[in-house]
Amino acid sequence: MASMPADRSPDSTLALLREGYRFIGDRCDRYGTDIFQTRLLLEPTICLRGRPAAAIFYDPERFVRAGAAPKRMQRTLTGVGGVQGLDGAAHHDRKAMFMSIMTPSAVRQLGQLFDDEWRARVPAWERAGRVVLHDEVAPLLTRAVCAWAGVPLADTEVARRTAVMRSMIEGPTALGPRHWRGRVGRRRSERWLGEVVERARVGVLPAPPGSALGAIAEHRDGRGQLLPRRIAAVELLNVLRPTVAVDRFVVFAALALHDHPQWRDQVRGDDDATECFVQEVRRYYPFFPVAAARVRRSFDWQGHHFPQGRRVLLDLYGTNHHEALWPEPERFRPERFAGWRGDPYALVPQGGGEHLTGHRCAGEWITIELLKRAVTNLTTTMRYEVPPQDLAIDLRRMPALPPSGLVIADVRRTA
Ligand code: HEM
């Protein structure tokens, strides 16, 4: 059995928080491998990156998710009892519920709602002189996804609910008050959505057919049981929260248009080019650093032993920037996706493998649709300036974003 390179430090949790997205990649480069062992949160952990690694990581015969996610992540970002921590038949059943919502027409409908919100907001941006795109896009997504999901939302609630969902996204890696805001935000949101589910179940709030609320409130598990109210709330939040988080990708897309202005013309009126651009945004910019799992039963792979129960991290960012998969990985080149046939283990910003049978993100098609709408709006329905500001992305900060949130100025409608 080959010996696995190992970090010397007794625990590397602080190094991971300090080094951020490059924590695994830098060590792999240093050791000249795509696998090494370290200790995180005082537990031995195997870190992997690259395509072959992604292919085993997303093999449900080899890995399980139960007990893989750290508590601080569950208490802020994902919740307890949701689809992310399920395995086997329970996971298939719950995941089928999510995927039933993601029909092509439903995805388009959400795109249209976002588009309508965007266009309705442009006059306010014209009047404002300058706005922070990150702050502006999130409420549009909150409104669109709540309307789409069948969750009532008064105008007066939009800002608060948006802020709370953001706090959950920043919670897992934050320390002190920012982390606690994430926990409180999750508790409040689960209470709110638990009530919404209850009202749908008793018929006070009829859920539109095919809506996320309808699918989740009425879902019955393998034993014919409705989901407990809190779990239903966790799952409804699993639709709302990540949709609002698409705001970060929208900021990255706007940044890419700013840094590579030749793409403004290329994407205009060209759906294929827009898709290539959006895929490159998802590959290039940092979002989720890693995915976590545990070894189901001991096995050997590429001469290395994986003992049962061992925690394993797959470097999503590092796989998206792996030289063997992506020539010149540190260059933003949307043309690399022209004619791309897809590869479930190469482009993994939202996880890899299969949507239905594995833990790949349920909202990938939604993300692509919303990003395409945003790129089209940024290039065809308005023009704007990007004043001097700090747009540097610090890969040590998770989740990453340009510090300015991307300020745009002198917005004018063009369509
Ligand atoms: C903002 C962009 C998004 C990113 C970067 C993202 C990323 C991810 C990642 C990395 C995973 C975990 C994969 C794994 O465990 O191996 C995941 C899972 C998931 N995502 Fe997303 N996601 C996004 C948007 C969405 C949207 C829009 C939705 C729903 C509307 C969504 C719903 C889910 C669900 C339900 C899961 C759990 C799937 C499972 O465990 O089977 N995500 N996402």
From TrEMBL:
<dbReference type="GO" id="GO:0005506">
    <property type="term" value="F:iron ion binding"/>
</dbReference>
<dbReference type="GO" id="GO:0016705">
    <property type="term" value="F:oxidoreductase activity, acting on paired donors, with incorporation or reduction of molecular oxygen"/>
</dbReference>
<dbReference type="InterPro" id="IPR036396">
    <property type="entry name" value="Cyt_P450_sf"/>
</dbReference>
<dbReference type="Pfam" id="PF00067">
    <property type="entry name" value="p450"/>
</dbReference>
<protein>
    <submittedName>
        <fullName>Cytochrome P450</fullName>
    </submittedName>
</protein>
<comment type="similarity">
    <text>Belongs to the cytochrome P450 family.</text>
</comment>
<dbReference type="InterPro" id="IPR002401">
    <property type="entry name" value="Cyt_P450_E_grp-I"/>
</dbReference>
<keyword id="KW-0349">Heme</keyword>
<dbReference type="GO" id="GO:0020037">
    <property type="term" value="F:heme binding"/>
</dbReference>
<dbReference type="GO" id="GO:0004497">
    <property type="term" value="F:monooxygenase activity"/>
</dbReference>
<feature type="binding site" description="axial binding residue">
    <location>
        <position position="361"/>
    </location>
    <ligand>
        <name>heme</name>
    </ligand>
</feature>
<keyword id="KW-0408">Iron</keyword>
<keyword id="KW-0479">Metal-binding</keyword>
<dbReference type="InterPro" id="IPR001128">
    <property type="entry name" value="Cyt_P450"/>
</dbReference>
